[in-house]
């Protein structure tokens, strides 16, 4: 994904789309980004120490007590207003410049995962069966670094900056819990941003407008229990599988295709778009005294396709011999899906490209199709925002930052990249 060809193509794309324009104005002083980089350099070693402390003391979702206490203490030392215990162990830090302006939020997830896989670094987890194998220790450290930089530049800033440290991202529950606990009565951001470690080089970030991940739902087709059950099951399974538009022999199913320079996520010719697929291993039949249900796990890259599935299936069944037996066609499981605001995505990439170079940005074209997601999506339902991937790999050293992989580790230089890029981004968004 970081080949010279892709970088050159990306630079051309930015120029053609107007993301990088010599005529683009900015109200922020050019020197502030040099100050950001200087401050980041000064605190870098201390941030590495903080990250390693989080890594050695990981806490699973819902039990992030020590982590949240460390976060709150650090923010208080910087002069932030701090609120704790939001949606569990959630922490929010507020930096109010006292000057009229925009309100920008940054979110970081703080939980670790249950894992019995041995750690691969010298500063290994001290908590048996728990490990930061997804990089949330790095995400949290970067957010603290940005908070430090923002505090150091407070006199030059306007508006308000919020930092949301969210528990329980892994089970996809923490964001909603914080919102339900009154998060957006406490803070009122105009825009929200966040990032996550990904298996790219440490100088690289990537994102795309609108959906970054496929969405997933559980489809349920229920019928009256009858002597036709076996025929109904066969018919329903055939109907469900007809929704899939990806051939079994397609390279779509090969995980290595995601990074293929010709057909992968970063290619304009990506095969990871306009797809719907069915997890055949998760088609289940459930029976009760009066009802039979056929449930299937479905993924799609297009919201419009999901919206069309229920009326489409109802219509087909109404024209079949099983019409009178039908009870309902519905989704029984839905989740929020990341949706990057198109204009904010373009503007954000323009800011970072101008300051740090378009060669360090991968503009994605495809939509991830491996069941991943992030409950940052629940914030985006309330506030427009952008979610980024941040590279944490050093391929020459054999460091691969693939979340959830047994050999997951990060090149800690990604902390420097994240603090620099995203501090500059927040400054630019405050003034634009």
From TrEMBL:
Record has Metal-binding as a keyword: yes
Gene Ontology molecular-function annotations: carboxypeptidase activity; metal ion binding; N-acetyldiaminopimelate deacetylase activity
Binding-site residues, Mn(2+): 134, 136, 170, 196, 404
InterPro entries: Amidohydrolase, Peptidase_M20
Transmembrane annotation, as ranges: none
Entry's cofactor comment: The Mn(2+) ion enhances activity.
Cofactor(s), by name: Mn(2+)
Keyword terms: Carboxypeptidase, Hydrolase, Manganese, Metal-binding, Protease
Alphabetical GO biological process terms: diaminopimelate biosynthetic process
PANTHER family to which the protein is assigned, alphabetical: N-ACETYLDIAMINOPIMELATE DEACETYLASE, PEPTIDASE M20 FAMILY MEMBER
Protein name listed in UniProt: Metal-dependent amidase/aminoacylase/carboxypeptidase
Organism: Aquimarina atlantica
């Amino acid at each position: 994904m970081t080949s010279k060809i892709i970088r050159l193509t990306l630079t051309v794309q930015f120029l053609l789309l107007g993301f990088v324009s010599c005529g683009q104005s900015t109200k922020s002083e050019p020197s502030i980004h040099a100050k950001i980089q200087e401050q980041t350099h000064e605190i870098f070693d201390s941030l590495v120490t903080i990250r390693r402390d989080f890594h050695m003391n990981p806490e699973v979702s819902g039990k992030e007590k020590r982590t949240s206490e460390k976060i709150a203490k650090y923010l208080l030392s910087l002069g932030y207003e701090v609120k704790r215990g939001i949606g569990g162990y959630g922490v929010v830090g507020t930096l109010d410049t006292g000057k009229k302006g925009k309100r920008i939020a940054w979110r970081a997830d703080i939980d670790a995962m249950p894992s019995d896989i041995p750690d691969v670094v010298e500063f290994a987890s001290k908590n048996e069966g728990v490990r930061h194998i997804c990089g949330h220790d790095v995400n949290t450290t970067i957010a603290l670094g940005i908070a430090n930089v923002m505090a150091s530049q407070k006199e030059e800033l306007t508006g308000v900056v919020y930092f949301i440290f969210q528990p329980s991202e892994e089970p996809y529950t923490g964001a909603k819990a914080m919102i339900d606990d009154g998060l957006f009565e406490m803070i009122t951001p105009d825009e929200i941003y966040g990032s996550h470690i990904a298996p790219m080089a440490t100088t690289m970030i990537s994102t795309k407008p609108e959906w970054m991940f496929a969405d997933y739902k559980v489809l349920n087709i229920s019928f009256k229990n009858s002597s036709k059950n076996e025929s109904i099951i066969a018919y329903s399974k055939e109907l469900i599988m007809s929704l899939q538009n990806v051939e079994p022999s397609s390279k779509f199913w090969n995980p290595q295709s995601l990074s293929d320079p010709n057909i992968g996520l970063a290619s304009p010719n990506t095969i990871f778009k306009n797809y719907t697929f069915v997890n055949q291993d998760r088609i289940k039949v459930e029976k009760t005294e009066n009802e039979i249900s056929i449930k299937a796990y479905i993924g799609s890259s297009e919201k419009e396709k999901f919206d069309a599935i229920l009326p489409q299936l109802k219509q087909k069944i109404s024209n079949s011999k099983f019409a009178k037996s039908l009870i309902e066609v519905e989704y029984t499981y839905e989740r929020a899906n990341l949706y990057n605001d198109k204009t904010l995505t373009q503007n954000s990439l323009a800011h970072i490209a101008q300051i740090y170079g378009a060669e360090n940005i991968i503009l994605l074209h495809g939509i991830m199709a491996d069941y991943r997601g992030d409950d940052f999506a629940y914030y985006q339902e309330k506030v427009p925002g952008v979610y980024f991937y941040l590279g944490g790999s050093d391929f020459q050293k054999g460091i691969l930052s693939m979340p959830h992989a047994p050999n997951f580790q990060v090149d800690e230089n990604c902390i420097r990249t994240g603090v620099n890029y995203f501090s500059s981004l927040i400054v630019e968004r405050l003034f634009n």
